[in-house]
Write a structure and sequence with these properties.
rod-shaped, mainly alpha
Length: 159
Amino acid sequence: MDNKMKAALIGGVVAGVLSVIPVVSTCCFLWALGGGFLAVFIYLKGAPGPMAPGDGAKLGIRAGVVGAIIYLIIALPMMLLWGGASMSAAVQQSGGGSAMGAGMLAGLGAFIVVVVAVVIIGCTALGGLIGAAVLGKGAGAPPPPPPPPAGFGGPGPGA
């Protein structure tokens, strides 16, 4: 496994798991930003050279895909089981006996989970972009000028 994939896996796991934990998930999109930033940070610890912001965004997208898959695997069943049951109970308590309405609400909840997973990918890409811009080891800065040749600036031939 190359360093980019290892960094993306670690950043994605952090973004995905922290985004689905019930109380901690209120900062879901901040965890995704942090996951992209973390992926760039981990990659740059072993990288031989600088990293451009575009490469950081690509690494953030990798981390976001990992995080979104983890988020979907955990959040979608939770939403369909507990969210659907609570929505069904709320519909029946309000006087509506329609199971179809509860099913539509559960489907809407599942759609929202998928939209959140897509937003996680976007936020990790942004976190990777920010991470590469902040930590990129001088990416984008011009290289220093070469040293002057030997004897440059010394006395001339007639001195």
